[in-house]
From TrEMBL:
This is ABC transporter ATP-binding protein. Keywords: ATP-binding, Nucleotide-binding, Transport. One of its GO terms (molecular function) is ATP binding. PANTHER family: ABC TRANSPORTER ATP-BINDING PROTEIN, CONSERVED COMPONENT OF ABC TRANSPORTER FOR NATURAL AMINO ACIDS-RELATED. The lineage of its organism: Bacteria, Bacillati, Actinomycetota, Actinomycetes, Streptosporangiales.
Amino acid sequence: MLEVHGLTVRFGGITALDGVGFSVARGEMVGLIGPNGAGKTTLFNCLTRRHGADAGRVRYEGRDLLAVPPHAIAEAGIARTFQNLGLFPRMSVRDNVLTGAHHRGGAGFLAASLRLPRVRREEARLRAEADDVLDRLALTGVADHPATGLPFGTLKRVELARALAARPRLLLLDEPVNGLNSAEVGEFAGTLRGIREEFDVTVVVVEHHMGFVMGTCDRVVCLNFGRKIAEGPPEEVQRDPAVMEAYLGTA
Ligand code: ATP
């Protein structure tokens, strides 16, 4: 589904990604780990076309992803969540989730808006889909509640729901369990396992929480200083001396 070859991104004198390559098969859940500043967010930003690449290629479902304009990423079936929640605090949970569904509507939805009966039907359909996602993530009870004031663990689920409402084929999760307590991490992991099947979605997840990564990912890619230093099954990568050295400064 996704093939990254020799991806290089520089910011002035800093090489944030240095010839990174890996691939993700459809249906897989791949963990992207590495110490602070390793290049994980830069990689996500590249995949979602927030910025370009200085070298390398990215093929997504057989097409050149680096040639896809940023506004067409959602329509191409890619959705992401952010390290710092990007929710609208005063909007209800349902409306926040609907922004994800509208995203996918893109140009088609805009064209439909020229014809009022069609836009009403489209709106009703998107709302039904958003309600379905809310139900699946056990958020129906807070659907009409403004996002502000809800517990952090709930907001993390709302962020996931918003990404899923775009019905992505590739879901990029940026530190989804950061800030959650251990019970919430376990719950989130269970939810993620369920939605993978149910939404037929391929997942790449950036996360520092090793227990979560080891328990949920099929495969792990480890970056350090912009380079890939290890790749493989979670238990193998965890024992890899280069990975241990990157994290602990000692093998
Ligand atoms: P963390 O786990 O702390 O989020 P990360 O692995 O996501 O780190 P990145 O945020 O991708 O790392 O940063 C990789 C490198 O690129 C760092 O040295 C960072 O300072 C640098 N960097 C990232 N974005 C920019 C930018 N817009 N301008 C300049 N340097 C940047």
